[in-house]
Amino acid sequence: MTPVRSAPAGRTGVYHVPVLLDPVLVLLGNAHTVLDCTLGGGGHSAALVDQGARVTGIDRDPRALAAARERLTEAERAGSFRALLGNYADLERAGLAQAELFDGILLDLGVSSHQFDDPGRGFTFREGAPLDMRMGDDASVDAAGLLNTIDEIDLSALLRNFADEPRAARLAREIVRRRERRAFATADDLVDAIRAVLGPRSGAPDFARIFQAVRIAVNDELVGLERALPVLRDRLLPDGVLAIISYHSGEDRLVKHAFRSWSTACTCPPRLPMCTCDNVALGETLTRRAIVADDTEVATNPRARSAKLRAWRRAS
Fold first, then answer.
1. Closest C-alpha among 15, 89, 79 to residue 53
2. Which of 13, 98, 142, 153 has its CA 20 to 30 A from that of 50?
3. What is the structure's pLDDT at 12?
4. Residues 298 and 211 reside in one and the same domain
5. Do the Cβ atoms of 245 and 109 come closer than 8 Å?
6. What is the overall mean pLDDT for the chain?
7. What residues make up the domain containing 288?
8. What is the helix, strand, coil percentage profile of the chain, to 5?
């Protein structure tokens, strides 16, 4: 794998700065047809089109889809790009034919720069921002609705599992106590609850971690990813590559374990003298360790700080 470099200035977009662009282009360098499952503003897709690929982009956010189509108008006219509204966890509902396969598939999980920077979308803990966090209209409840109705035990599990919060039970209890007096509506409500439990020294890293956990629950992200992984694998042509950028330990763990499982041939217990399972590896993991952004990219795009890129190639 070539060293990770920051994206050249000409490749960055107003809507979304593509994370780990150069290694993505290397990993998908031989792909003629690419499925970009998280289109966002089209930064990765535009670079892949420039590299000669024919790209199908999917996004559950209508505004992101509109921005990407505007950015890639010429490519769409030329037939090298098309955009579909939908969730990558349900490709057929998004309009993708069941028989359509690809040389490369890309997932850039998490929130795009534009979604995060738009206070009206409610992904941020800025003062007065609404507690929304829905990535698309397919989400059944917004963050306020979730925090105002979820059972205390389930909320504690959410905070513990998605935010690695050691005081999850106390924070869940505090949220329930506060919502009984007044329903949660803005980011301030959740920030105040966090400060009440974690103390006055709690700050942006704590808020970001807990807000991310709520966002993951609102958009059913981990469940959707787990369901989608084998489906995306089976959408690859022989020698096709699946590249996934994750920003959360739970996401990365799912990806790492899936790739390891698919790359394993024999699954017999180690004490057996000979293989009896006759399993065949489905492909090979291309990234022994996750690729991360270097200091230069993080300086120009702080969102890249927590990004981890892993890739897997289907067998011939």
1. 79
2. 98
3. 41
4. no
5. yes
6. 88
7. 9-114+221-314
8. 45, 15, 40
Residues 45 and 69 in one domain: yes
Task: List Cα–Cα distances, 47 to 12, 175, 238, 310, in angstroms.
Answer: 9, 44, 23, 19
Rounded Cα distance between 274 and 249, Å, is 36
Integer Cα distance of 81 and 48 in angstroms = 10
At residue 105, the 3 state secondary structure works out as strand
Size of the chain in residues: 316
Specify whether 50 is located in the same domain as 165: no
Nearest to 215 by CA among 289, 291, 68, 115: 115
Tokens of 237: 């042509």
Global pTM? Answer: 0.84
Q: How many domains does the chain have?
A: 2
Q: Are residues 229 and 301 located together in one domain of the fold?
A: yes
Q: What is the pLDDT of residue 123?
A: 66
Q: Alpha-carbon distance 150 to 153, whole Å?
A: 8
Same domain, 103 and 248: yes
